[in-house]
Every structure is written in C-alpha cells, then in structure tokens.
C-alpha cells in the first residue's frame, strides 16, 4: 500500500470491541492508518491496555467524550473530529459497527465529503429500543462502501434499497482477531490452572448491556439466575465496570459474591477462558460471533439480536428472567458430544481474511476508475 500517503486513512473508534475488530486492518494499512480514539470507553481496563496487547499505535485521543450521555458523546466527538479533518483531511474514513464513535465518524465523513467505509454493515435487530440499531442504520445510509459480514447482512441492505454496487461481503474481522489472539494450548492450560479451573468444567458469564444493568430488578434477576447456574458448575464472571457500579449502587454485591468475579480480562485471556468454558452466558454482540469461531455454546441474554447467524447452532437467545438457568441447563445437559459437534462446525462469519479484503477496498477508493473487486466470505473453524 505504498501508494497511499502516510496517515491518509482515518480509522475512527472508541470502544474495546472496535479496537479488537479493527486491529488487523490498522496493521495492514501500516503508516497510512490514522487511528482516532473518541474515548467512548475511557478507562484503561476497557481500552488503554489493549493497545499494547493488540500491537496498535498510539491513537489521537479526543477529550470530553467518555462517560457522557449519548447525545453529548456524539456532539462532542463530531465537533472534535470535524476540526481535525478540516485541518488535515484524510483520504477515507473507516468506522466499525454501531457505536457512538462510529456514528460520529460517519457524520463527519459525510459532512466533509470524505469517502466512508463501514465495517460490519447490514446488521439489524429490528429493535428500535436499541440506540445501536439507530446508529447502524444511519451509518449504512451514509457509507460509500458497506462491508457486510455475511450474505444475510447483504440481503438486509438490499431490502432497504442500498445499491448493490456499494455492498461487499467480506466476512467479519472477528474471525482473524480470534485466530490471532487465542493463546496456544500450553498457555491456556496455565491460565486455567491459575484460576483453579478445569477445561469444560465452568461457565463463563459477561453482562454489561443497559437492558440488563440499568434496572436494579432486572440486574438482580440476571445475577440470581447466574447464581443458580453456579450450583451446577462454577460461574466465572469478568466484571464490566458498568455492571460493577450498577450492582454496588443497587446493593447487589452479595449476589456477585456467589460467583467467581474477575477484573475485566485482556482479550487473549478472555478468549482462553471462552475456549474452554462448558457454556458462555452473555449479552455481548461480539461474543455471539466469537463463540462460532471457538466452537462453544452460548446463551444470549437479550430481548433481540442483530446476529441471527449464531442462533442456528451455537446459541440460544432468552430475555432476562427465569429462562436463563433453564436454557443454560439444557445446553449443559447436551454434554461433551455437543461440544465436539460445535467445535467441528465452520463459523458463519468467514474464513479469517476479512481485514485483507477490507484493506483492498480502502485501496480501491484511491483508484476511482477501477471498480472494487467483489469478494465473498469463506468458512473456517478455529483450530483446537
């Protein structure tokens, strides 16, 4: 990519999942990548420490964004990005997913008439109560190149009237992220032993979404259900700062004490824990994708999901409530045979070359006379 001028592609992000999913693309872009971090995740446990782990350069940081209400986050990031891109306009802007950071980057690119690439385009939950749903729909309407992870995502975009020549099915960059950062077997064995865990002998849980944490009664139900699962197998829970704060404010610390609570884990550590969990219980969108690469079963605790591909084999979705333990018990009862079956299945999210395909599409933006090559996602499971 030597024909691209240095720092000519602005990669705008603001959260831990964006860092994970865009790391390989940033590496492929090399000196051309200009990483701008809005600070939406503003503490080191959620973003800062990840830079070293993922091998990313120090970003340009915006200030005054993290921890603010949604409208303020978007407004502050929008103003700061516009000032930077007016002074030093990039060749293209890349955003990923559906965060406030991604929406801010997309709006500035559109206002400044800078080509916009949307990584992970076409996801839809059809749940208007989700702020992320509004963000992703808006970004898709603005994007010049829409990198759909799956053919289903492409179909949804076409149904909404998005022009076919703006859409490319690239696969999801999460596949290469898992392959790149899953520690080798010996290191995973040592990590599990350090926590007193046995492979396939525990449940891994993560909870952080507002629908599960903002209402103390809902959060109490979720934690009680995890405590019930803990009677069958130990529940290990890397605790999101948001969840910790909400639980302590609601006086729910005793429920957390029934679980094995860990500090937020580095990405490699989390993947190691997920790879050997008998079951994962989570409300995370990214984990729905990662489990399909790791070959692990998942109970999704959400009202809706924008990732139905995972539900075919790997996951069951339940709303917050007493069905969590029921769904977990059903998955656990399937036993080792089901774990072997899931481990043999290909991920619906591609073959681990999405970042390369997206990097090629970014390169094509500098050659307007040449249409971007059409790409389609392949399939490959993670190695044991």
Q: Topology, please?
A:
Blueprint: E1 9-13, H1 16-29, E2 33-37, H2 44-54, E3 60-61, H3 70-87, E4 92-96, H4 100-111, E5 116-121, H5 131-142, E6 145-148, H6 151-159, E7 167-169, H7 174-181, H8 185-194, E8 203-206, H9 210-213, H10 216-230, E9 235-238, H11 241-249, H12 253-257, E10 260-262, H13 267-275, E11 279-282, H14 285-294, E12 298-301, E13 315-318, H15 323-333, H16 335-344, H17 354-364
Parallel strand pairs: 1-2, 1-4, 2-3, 4-5, 5-6, 6-7, 8-9, 8-11, 9-10, 11-12, 12-13
Structure description:
With 384 residues, the protein is α/β, with parallel strands linked by helices. The protein has 2 domains: 9-173 and 352-364, Glycogen Phosphorylase B (Rossmann fold, 3-Layer(aba) Sandwich), CATH 3.40.50; 184-344, Glycogen Phosphorylase B (Rossmann fold). The chain has helices at residues 16-29, 44-54, 70-87, 100-111, 131-142, 151-159, 174-181, 185-194, 210-213, 216-230, 241-249, 253-257, 267-275, 285-294, 323-333, 335-344, 354-364, and strands at residues 9-13, 33-37, 60-61, 92-96, 116-121, 145-148, 167-169, 203-206, 235-238, 260-262, 279-282, 298-301, 315-318. It has a 7-stranded parallel β-sheet with strand order 3-2-1-4-5-6-7, sandwiched between helices. α6 links the parallel β6 and β7. α1 packs parallel to α2 (44-54). The protein is globular, with a radius of gyration of 20 Å. Residues 368-384 have low confidence and may be disordered.
């Amino acid at each position: 990519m030597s024909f691209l001028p240095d720092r000519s592609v602005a990669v705008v992000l603001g959260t831990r999942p964006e860092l994970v999913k865009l790391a390989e693309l940033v590496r492929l872009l090399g000196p051309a990548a200009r990483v701008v971090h809005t600070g939406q995740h503003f503490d080191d446990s959620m973003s800062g420490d990840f830079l070293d782990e993922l091998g990313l350069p120090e970003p340009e940081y915006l200030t005054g964004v993290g921890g603010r209400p949604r409208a303020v986050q978007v407004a502050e990031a929008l103003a700061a990005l516009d000032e930077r891109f007016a002074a030093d306009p990039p060749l293209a802007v890349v955003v990923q997913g559906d965060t406030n950071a991604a929406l801010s980057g997309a709006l500035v690119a559109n206002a400044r008439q800078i080509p916009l690439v949307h990584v992970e385009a076409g996801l839809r939950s059809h749940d208007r109560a989700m702020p992320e749903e509004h963000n992703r729909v808006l970004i898709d309407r603005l994007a010049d190149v829409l990198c759909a992870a799956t053919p289903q995502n492409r179909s949804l975009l076409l149904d909404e009237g998005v022009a076919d020549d703006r859409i490319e099915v690239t696969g999801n960059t999460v596949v290469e992220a898992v392959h790149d950062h899953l520690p080798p077997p010996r290191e995973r064995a040592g990590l599990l032993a350090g926590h007193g865990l046995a492979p396939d002998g525990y449940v891994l849980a993560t909870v952080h979404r507002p629908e599960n944490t903002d209402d103390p009664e809902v959060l109490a139900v979720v934690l009680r259900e995890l405590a019930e699962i803990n009677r069958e197998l130990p529940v290990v829970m890397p605790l999101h700062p948001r969840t910790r704060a909400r639980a302590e404010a609601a006086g729910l610390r005793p429920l957390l004490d029934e679980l094995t609570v860990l500090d937020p884990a580095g990405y490699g550590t989390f993947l190691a824990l997920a790879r050997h969990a008998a079951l994962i219980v989570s409300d995370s969108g990214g984990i729905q994708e990662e489990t399909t690469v790791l070959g692990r079963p998942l109970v999704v605790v959400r009202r809706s999901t924008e990732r139905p591909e995972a539900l075919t084999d790997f996951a069951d979705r339940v709303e917050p409530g007493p069905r969590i333990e029921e769904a977990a018990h059903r998955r656990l009862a399937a036993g080792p045979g089901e774990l072997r079956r899931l481990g043999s299945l290909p991920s619906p999210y591609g073959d681990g070359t999405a970042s390369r395909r997206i990097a090629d599409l970014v390169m094509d933006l500098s050659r307007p006379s040449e249409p971007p090559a059409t790409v389609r996602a392949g399939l490959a499971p993670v190695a044991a």
